[in-house]
Each structure stands twice: as structure tokens, then as C-alpha cells.
């Protein structure tokens, strides 16, 4: 297939709910584009988009790929097949600590998002890449594995567990540095990955991260002993995303 263009946007710091709504609007716009091309009905977004949000009329031009990056204020999110008992504190305690909580429509279990963590949300039409969710997840992992190599770390996959790890094959030393959970509708993706860079890892003490017991969570800062410039890490993720997905990132306004 021809090299695809992916529209990139850095959302800065944005609440989880607002970023989720933004992704949903992009996904629905792409579903509408597919319905116009194939004649298969797709749900429409009822409200007019706020200023600066994507224009539904763009759907007439066909599907568009997006890559969003964002940092969230502290929030726990539970995947659609997740287990609430993996949250070890109650909502009143979360509220007192300034932590939000959302049940989401992504895959996976419970995880944390917060400052110092880069969250990447690709909204891709996989029919223009490949129709293989397993390959898509492995490629997301590959992006972070390559970024970690830039910092002298060996990122690994853990058999049967999505995400990126360190020492995945050493019992008792396994450390997860990047969590993943996606949704796909008619081969349009949303949600994505969360890479711990300078993240306050104490937030993970009050959950069973990804529903996996007796394994640790780590960060780029913890592994290297220093804080890192977030823009530098974002640029490395963008560069490796282009390589792994054989695409070109554009900064067109959306």
C-alpha cells in the first residue's frame, strides 16, 4: 500500500474525559466517511463540534489518520473487561486525592494516567495499513521498544501480556513501563498507549495495574536515574511511529 499520512496533534495537558470525547469525534467522523463510501450506515454525532474540533464535512474526503499525544491530570481508567476489585481505594479516597475515575470502552483492565506520562492515541483506519489487531498492538509495542533503545534500555514483550516491559523473563524482576489498551470499530482505532517517563509511580500502589499481580511498574526516570525532557521523548515516539507504521506525520490543523 502507499505510504499513509497521519495527522499529528499535541493536546498538551487535557482531562481524560475531554480527550476521550475528542477521540470519539474523530472515530465517528471516520465511520461516517466509511458509510458514505460503502453505503453502510454509521452513527452520526448529534451536536455541532465546538470551535477547533474536527469538521464532519471532512468526512466527505474519506477517512483520515490521526495521532494524538496528551498528558492527563491524575486518573484511573478501567477497561470494558476490567475488574473493579483491582482498584484498592474507594471513590471518596480518590476524590480526596484529586484522582478521577472512568470506566472506558477500551480493552485491558485498570491503569493510571497522570503528569509525566505520555499518552498516545492513534485514530487509524487499519484498512489502509493491515486488518490485523494483533499486528497493530505488536507495532505499538515496537514503537516504544525502539524509543527505549534510544535511552539505552532494552524493552521487551511479555508472553500473553500486552505492553512493554523490562526483564520480562526474569521472575520477580518484571517491570512494566508502557501499558496499552485499544478499541477498534470497523477497523478504526482509538485509545492507545501510556508510556511512563517522569511519572509519579506511587499512584500505582492503589491499584493492581492491568490486573497483573506481583509485577512492578517502572518509568524512564526510575530506570535511568534522571528526569527527561517530555518534548524530546515525544519527538522520539513520533519518529519511531513513522518508521514502524511506514507513514508520514503531518501537523495539519484539526
Describe this structure in words.
The protein is 26% helix and 28% strand. It is globular, with a radius of gyration of 18 Å. Helix 3 (133-150) packs across helix 5 (230-244). The protein is built from five helices and twelve strands. With 254 residues, the chain is an alpha/beta fold. The protein has one domain (4-250): BirA Bifunctional Protein, domain 2. Residues 41-48 and 56-60 have low confidence and may be disordered. The strands form two sheets. Strands 1, 2, 6, 7, 8, 9, 10, 11 and 12 form a nine-stranded mixed sheet that branches. The protein has a three-stranded mixed sheet with strand order 4-3-5. The protein has helices spanning 16-38, 91-96, 133-150, 220-224, 230-244; strands spanning 4-13, 65-71, 75-78, 100-103, 110-113, 117-123, 156-158, 161-166, 175-185, 188-196, 216-217, 247-250.
How are the secondary structure elements laid out?
Layout: E1 4-13, H1 16-38, E2 65-71, E3 75-78, H2 91-96, E4 100-103, E5 110-113, E6 117-123, H3 133-150, E7 156-158, E8 161-166, E9 175-185, E10 188-196, E11 216-217, H4 220-224, H5 230-244, E12 247-250
Parallel strand pairs: 1-2, 1-12, 3-4, 9-11
Antiparallel strand pairs: 2-6, 3-5, 6-10, 7-8, 8-9, 9-10
Helix pairs in contact: 3-5
Amino acid at each position: 500500500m502507499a505510504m499513509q499520512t497521519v495527522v499529528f496533534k499535541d493536546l498538551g495537558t487535557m482531562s481524560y474525559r475531554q480527550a476521550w470525547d475528542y477521540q470519539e469525534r474523530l472515530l465517528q467522523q471516520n465511520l461516517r466517511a466509511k458509510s458514505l463510501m460503502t453505503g453502510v450506515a454509521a452513527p452520526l454525532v448529534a451536536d455541532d463540534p465546538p470551535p477547533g474540533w474536527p469538521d464532519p464535512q471532512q468526512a466527505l474526503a474519506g477517512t483520515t489518520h490521526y495521532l494524538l499525544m496528551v498528558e492527563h491530570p491524575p486518573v484511573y481508567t478501567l477497561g470494558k473487561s476490567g475488574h473493579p476489585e483491582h482498584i484498592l481505594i474507594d471513590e471518596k479516597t480518590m476524590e480526596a486525592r484529586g484522582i478521577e475515575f472512568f470506566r472506558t470502552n477500551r480493552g485491558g483492565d485498570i491503569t493510571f494516567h497522570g503528569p509525566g506520562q505520555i499518552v498516545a492515541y492513534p485514530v487509524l483506519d487499519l484498512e489502509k495499513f493491515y486488518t490485523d489487531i494483533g499486528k497493530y498492538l505488536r507495532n505499538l509495542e515496537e514503537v516504544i521498544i525502539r524509543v527505549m533503545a534510544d535511552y539505552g534500555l532494552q524493552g521487551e514483550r511479555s508472553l500473553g501480556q500486552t505492553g512493554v516491559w523490562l526483564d520480562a523473563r526474569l521472575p520477580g524482576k518484571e517491570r512494566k513501563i508502557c501499558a496499552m489498551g485499544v478499541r477498534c470499530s470497523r477497523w478504526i482505532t482509538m485509545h492507545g498507549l501510556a508510556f511512563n517517563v517522569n511519572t509519579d509511580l506511587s499512584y500505582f500502589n492503589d491499584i493492581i495495574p492491568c490486573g497483573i499481580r506481583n509485577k512492578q511498574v517502572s518509568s524512564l526516570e526510575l530506570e535511568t536515574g534522571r528526569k527527561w525532557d517530555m518534548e524530546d521523548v515525544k519527538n522520539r515516539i513520533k519518529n519511531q511511529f513513522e518508521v514502524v507504521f511506514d507513514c508520514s506525520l503531518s501537523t495539519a490543523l484539526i
